[in-house]
Design brief:
It is a single chain. The chain has helices at residues 2-14, 44-53, 62-67, 69-80, 90-111, 143-154, 159-162, 183-195, 213-216, 218-221, 228-235, and strands at 134-136, 139-141, 209-210, 247-248. It is globular. The longest helix has 22 residues, at 90-111. It is mostly helical. Strand 1 (134-136) and strand 2 form a beta hairpin. The protein contains 11 helices and 4 strands; from the N terminus they run αααααββαααβαααβ. The strands form 2 sheets. The protein has a two-stranded antiparallel sheet. Strands 3-4 form a two-stranded parallel sheet.
Length: 258
C-alpha cells in the first residue's frame, strides 16, 4: 500500500494535483539575476520570532513559539492579504514565497502538536505536502503548491536551501527573514552553509556523499550548471572531482526541534 501511495503521489505531483492556482510569480530565464533592490512588505514581526525561537543551528524551540503562535498567525494573515503583484521585483516575490513556506510549516507543526516528524501529519494520499492549509487572497494552497507550483518554476535552485521542511536533514532555518533587498544574499548564504555543512560529506573528493536533496532535485541544479558536481562545486569549500562517484545520504525526517 505504501508503494502504491508513493506512486500516486509522484503522479499527482507531476501532473495535476499541484499548481500555482492563480498566484503571481515571474520566471528567471537565460541566467537572469534576481532583482533585489527594494522591499515592499514588512517581515520584521516574523523575523523577531525567528531570532527568539530559532538557534544558530536552525533548530526550533517549538514549545516557546507555540506560546506566541498568535503572532505567527498574524504574520501569515498579513501575507495572505498582500499577495505578490505583477509590479513586484523578482526578489520581493522570492522572499514572499520562501517566508510563506517556512512560516506556514512552523504553524503547521504547532497546530499538530509538534509530532516526531512532519510526515506524521496526514494529508491527501497520506501526504502532508498535499494538504491545503495555506491561505493566500482567499484561496487555499499546499506546501507542494508553493514549492513545486511556484518556487521551483521561478528558476533559481537555491530555493532548495532556503525553504525548510521542519526536518533534521533539511537546510537549516535561518534566524533572518527573507526580504526583497536581502533575498539574493541570503539565498547564497543558505547555499554555502548547506553545501559545507554536515548534511554533506565532501571529505573524499572522489566519493562524496551528498544530501538526498541533490538527488530529489537534480534537474533543477543541472538546469543552471552542466552537471550536479559543477553545481555543488560552485559553493563547496573542498571541491569534488568531476569524475567522482556520488552517493546520497539517507534523509532524516525527524523534527528539527531544539
Amino acid at each position: 500500500m505504501k508503494k502504491i501511495a508513493y506512486l500516486l503521489l509522484i503522479l499527482c505531483l507531476g501532473i495535476s494535483c499541484v499548481g500555482s492556482g492563480g498566484l503571481h510569480y515571474d520566471q528567471l530565464t537565460n541566467g537572469e539575476k534576481i532583482e533585489a533592490t527594494r522591499s515592499q512588505l514588512d517581515h520584521s514581526n516574523y523575523e523577531a520570532l525567528l531570532k527568539k525561537y530559532v538557534n544558530e543551528k536552525g533548530f526550533v524551540n517549538y514549545e516557546g513559539l507555540a506560546e506566541e503562535q498568535a503572532k505567527l498567525k498574524s504574520y501569515l494573515t498579513y501575507l495572505s492579504v498582500n499577495p505578490p503583484r505583477k509590479d513586484w521585483e523578482t526578489g520581493e516575490q522570492f522572499a514572499y514565497y520562501i517566508n510563506l513556506y517556512n512560516a506556514s510549516t512552523l504553524d503547521l507543526i504547532i497546530d499538530n502538536n509538534m509530532p516526531a516528524s512532519i510526515k506524521d501529519i496526514d494529508g491527501p494520499l497520506g501526504q502532508v505536502w498535499l494538504k491545503d492549509f495555506i491561505v493566500v487572497d482567499g484561496n487555499k494552497y499546499s506546501l507542494a503548491d508553493i514549492e513545486k507550483g511556484v518556487l521551483q518554476k521561478m528558476g533559481d535552485p537555491r530555493i532548495h536551501f532556503a525553504i525548510n521542511c521542519a526536518s533534521y536533514s533539511c537546510p537549516k532555518l535561518l534566524k533572518t527573514a527573507y526580504t526583497g533587498k536581502n533575498v539574493d544574499e541570503l539565498m547564497d548564504r543558505a547555499a554555502n552553509e548547506f553545501v559545507n555543512s554536515d548534511k554533506n560529506d565532501l571529505s573524499d573528493p572522489n566519493n562524496p556523499k551528498l544530501s538526498s536533496i541533490f538527488k530529489f532535485y537534480t534537474s533543477d541544479f543541472t538546469a543552471v550548471e552542466p552537471t550536479l558536481i559543477d553545481y555543488v562545486n560552485r559553493y563547496a569549500n573542498k571541491k569534488i572531482n568531476v569524475s567522482a562517484t556520488v552517493e546520497y545520504k539517507d534523509y532524516d525526517w525527524s523534527l528539527n526541534k531544539q
